[in-house]
Amino acid sequence: MDVRPSTVILQCFFILEQPDIGGTMYIDAHTHLEQFEDNLHVALEIIKKEEILTLACSMDAESYEFSKAVSKDWDLVIPAFGIHPWKASANLNVLEDHDPLIREAACIGEIGLDFYWDKNKENYPAQYKVFEYMLDRCKKYGKVSNIHTKGAEKEVLSSIKSFDIKPPIIHWYSGPRDILTKLIDFGCLFTISVDSGISPAAGELIEYVPLKQILTETDGPGSLLWVNGKCGYPNEVKNIVKEIAEIKKIDVAEMTEIIEGNFYEKLNVGFKEREDV
């Protein structure tokens, strides 16, 4: 989640269109379903209609349980458990209580460090402790993580190398080029987000990251709101794929398939054998 902590989620409206028919799924490798609030059902119908395999990241145990409950009725939703750096202090003394959730989750996220939006340096020791606990458990249980790096890219790189975890998914990277190169060399995947086609930095990220290390994300309804004042729904991922395909000079259908394959390979999810309806 890279939206400002003070962002207010405005009420959003969306009119569903007739479904598209196709064999390849779109990928939303980082969103926050609980933030849709009263518009959740609309978001879920879009996920179903557009066939968007969705990794629902959590901020804490409560939001994980929310996404887990949603996933029981919506099979394209994969709940991920994590403690966001903004929630680190509140969870500092209950970390071991979360071990059952870590073990059962398909992915560990959103976790990480944030020295950009969180300017209070007194919070940083708690962020470190929670992040390193999560990395330790990722190593122990062989989990893939979904990591927030804002303003702490160098520190995140050092930590993931120290714990020798599986190459993680790096969420909405916007840091230095030299650290990006090292994260690429480590094998990380990178989610391209809703600022693609708007932010020059997003275009540069798309150009620089190899095809086999690219994923797509929407980061929930508030992120596009922060970028351009419009409420973001899951089908924004289609615009992101188009932008990536244009920059990479690849057909959109082929780009969609590459991203889908990257996601399957990273998480070993079993949706490829699903029956097309």
What do you see in this structure?
It comes from Alkalibacter saccharofermentans DSM 14828. GO terms for molecular function: hydrolase activity, acting on ester bonds; metal ion binding. The protein is of the alpha/beta class and 277 residues long. Helix 6 packs parallel to helix 7 and helix 10 crosses helix 11. It has eleven helices and eight strands. It has a five-stranded parallel β-sheet. The protein has a three-stranded parallel β-sheet with strand order 1-2-3. It has a single domain, classed as Alpha-Beta Barrel (TIM Barrel). Helix content is 42%, strand content 12%. The N terminus and C terminus are likely disordered.
Features:
TIM Barrel, 5-stranded parallel β-sheet, alpha/beta, disordered N terminus, 277 residues, globular, disordered C terminus, single chain, 3-stranded parallel β-sheet, 11 helices, 8 strands
CATH topology: TIM Barrel
Strand order of the largest sheet: 4-5-6-7-8
* SS strand fraction: 5-15%
User: At the first level of CATH, what is the class?
Assistant: Alpha Beta
Biggest β-sheet description: 5 strands, parallel
CATH superfamily grouping = Metal-dependent hydrolases
- The chain-level mean pLDDT equals 90
Radius of gyration: 17 Å
Helix proportion: 40-55%
Instruction: Pick out the low-confidence regions.
Output: 1-21, 270-277
Name the overall outline: globular
Q: Tally the beta strands.
A: 8
CATH architectural arrangement: Alpha-Beta Barrel
Number of domains: 1
Short characterization:
The chain has one domain: TIM Barrel (Alpha-Beta Barrel). The protein has eleven helices and eight strands.
